[in-house]
Design brief:
The structure holds two protein chains of two kinds.
Chain A lengths: L4 H10 L4 E2 H12 L5 H14 L2 E5 L12 E5 L1 H17 L3 H5 L1
Chain B lengths: L1 H11 L7 H4 L4 H14 L7 H5 L8 H8 L1 H8 L5 H8 L1 H7 L4 H16 L12 H9 L5 H20 L4 H39 L1
Helix pairs in contact in B: 1-12, 3-8, 7-8, 10-11, 10-12, 11-12
The chains are: A mainly alpha, B mainly alpha.
């Protein structure tokens, strides 16, 4: 099972620790230099959660959020394995040229 | 079967749709704005300099804030024939409502507005639109499927706060709110309906087993 490029990017973001929706979006936009709406992000996150790649928990609320709690996402063991296989697949597809870049 | 129908309805229809009118009631922010309008009408000049230097503690009371800011004294000077209590009673019930507000959030909002008023000379009337984005957002949030509502609404509220800190005007913030909500509604409803149908089918098949 290989994730889509967007899913892979999100998995790579979450590998450093749990984040909530807005933080994931900001990091995604910073890394890929493309805009991502919150709607499409949450759809993707929900799909990934259904597939077992990530897990979520409801966090704390702040005065700014007015009783709307943050939803934190964390990568699962399956998610890590899928990300690893995606990276190997990508390196193989590029014929080892990725190493030259780095 | 009846439970199933109820579950479908509960999934598809956001419950807050029915409480929409209740949400349109005056919020503390609206009442605060009314207070400012009231003060503005009487051209009350309030010295907020000392107020901005104060540390806002968790248990701060709005009443104490009003007292320390000198609003009551200013009200006293408006009409020498009447006591502040009489003014409060006769002029507007709103003032009485204000004196009952005891939240840190309101106090912080007051402080921010006061700073803008004092330092940047932003007329209080122009600040009327300030809390509207939040009001819009809370009214609009019932269009988002319940499953995602907390996350999306909270994230957009944080976005609004960041934009405000960057000094964007209220129309820019409203555009941001509308754009993101429109996208969220377009994206999330098909997904929510799909997953609801999937869970219904799953339930039907599990019953047959």
């Amino acid at each position: 099972m290989l994730p889509s490029p967007r899913e892979a990017a999100i998995l790579d973001i979450l590998i450093n620790g749990e984040l909530y929706g807005r933080q994931i979006r900001d990091e995604y936009e910073k890394r890929t230099r493309t805009k991502l709406s919150l709607g499409s992000l949450y759809v993707t996150l929900n799909r990934m959660e259904t597939d077992g790649l990530i897990e979520s928990r409801m966090g704390e609320t702040t005065t700014i959020r007015v009783d709307n709690r943050r939803k934190y996402f964390n990568i699962t063991g399956l998610g890590e394995r899928v990300l690893h296989s995606f990276q190997i697949h990508l390196v193989n597809a590029m014929g080892g040229r990725l190493r030259c870049v780095t | 079967m009846r439970n199933l129908v109820v579950k479908i309805l509960m999934t598809l229809l956001p419950t807050s749709f029915f409480t929409y009118r209740l949400q349109r009631r005056k919020t503390p922010y609206d009442r605060l704005q009314d207070l400012f309008d009231f003060l503005h009408k009487f051209q009350v000049k309030v010295d907020y300099e000392n107020l901005s230097e104060k540390q806002m503690s968790e248990d701060i009371e709005f009443e104490r804030l009003i007292d320390s800011s000198g609003i009551q004294d200013s009200l006293k000077s408006l009409d020498k024939d009447r006591t502040p209590d009489e003014i409060l009673k006769n002029e507007s019930e709103i003032i009485e409502m204000y004196l009952g507000i005891k939240t840190k959030e309101i106090a912080e909002d007051l402080q921010k507005r006061a700073e803008l008023y004092v330092h940047k000379n932003v007329p209080l009337r122009n600040l009327k639109a300030r809390p509207d984005s939040k009001k819009w957002l809370i009214s609009l949030s019932f269009w988002v499927p319940r499953k995602y509502r907390e996350g999306i609404t909270g994230d957009i509220l944080e976005d609004c706060d960041d934009l405000r800190k960057l000094g964007k005007n209220e129309w820019r913030i409203r555009t941001h709110v509308l754009w993101h909500f429109s996208l969220a509604v377009i994206m999330l409803w098909p997904e929510a309906i799909g997953s609801a149908l999937a869970s219904i089918f799953e339930k039907i098949f599990s019953i047959k087993k």
